[in-house]
Design a protein that fits this description.
14% of the residues lie in helices and 35% in strands.
Length: 206
């Protein structure tokens, strides 16, 4: 018996499709990250933040910071320390990520739902106040008050349908920030054991 006929006999089985994949991953809780980079990325340079750079927006010019909310972050290897994340080629952040030598990876805390919403919202000024950030190692924008931040060297960008899977090596970071982890489940941001809060008007996280 063919695999297709066999699967058809399983109660409730559906044919593989984008809708089936989306429905499956709505049931899969995932950690929430924000990925940052500088545009253009041939030489990240330094984001245009004022001195101190603790609470200011993106500024203007060719070295402006970009970022997006992602739920596809995955640990790949410990030796060397590698991680991966997905990004759609239609994302406004893709041109920067496509050219950047380094990216920032931030694991968000439950106290940062608004930050996750800001970086998921299409057309938002994602680095404007009250978002706080500073230029970090290799000029990568580093967000304030996150439980974990990492700066990573991009090793490869693997084509996968309408997305690219970015594989990067961790070169710097800190893991002693405040907060319990923020999760994304059933289309909502939530905390461990907490009540889900719908993020209205947002793009689906990458």
């Amino acid at each position: 018996m063919s695999a297709a006929r066999s699967s058809a006999r399983v109660a409730g089985a559906r044919t593989g499709s984008p809708e089936l994949l989306r429905a499956a991953f709505r049931r899969h809780p995932a950690g929430v990250a924000v990925i940052t980079a500088v545009h253009p990325g041939d030489d990240p340079g330094r984001p245009r933040a004022p001195e101190g750079a603790r609470a200011d927006g993106a500024g203007s010019g060719p070295d402006r910071p970009v970022g997006f909310t992602a739920t596809s972050l995955t640990s790949v290897a410990a030796e060397p320390p590698l991680l991966s994340f997905g990004i759609g080629t239609g994302s406004s952040s893709w041109p920067a990520v496509a050219r950047s030598g380094h990216v920032g990876v931030h694991l968000l805390g439950a106290h940062q739902r608004e930050l996750a919403e800001t970086f998921a919202r299409s057309g938002a000024d994602r680095f404007a106040p009250p978002v706080r950030w500073r230029p970090g190692p290799h000029g990568v924008p580093v967000l304030a008050d996150v439980p974990v931040w990492l700066v990573c060297r991009v090793l490869s960008r693997v084509a996968a349908g309408d997305h690219r899977v970015v594989i990067a090596e961790v070169v710097a970071g800190a893991t002693d920030g405040p907060g319990r982890p923020l999760l994304y489940h059933r289309g909502r941001f939530t905390a461990l054991g907490g009540e889900a809060v719908p993020p209205p008007g947002l793009d689906p996280p990458g």
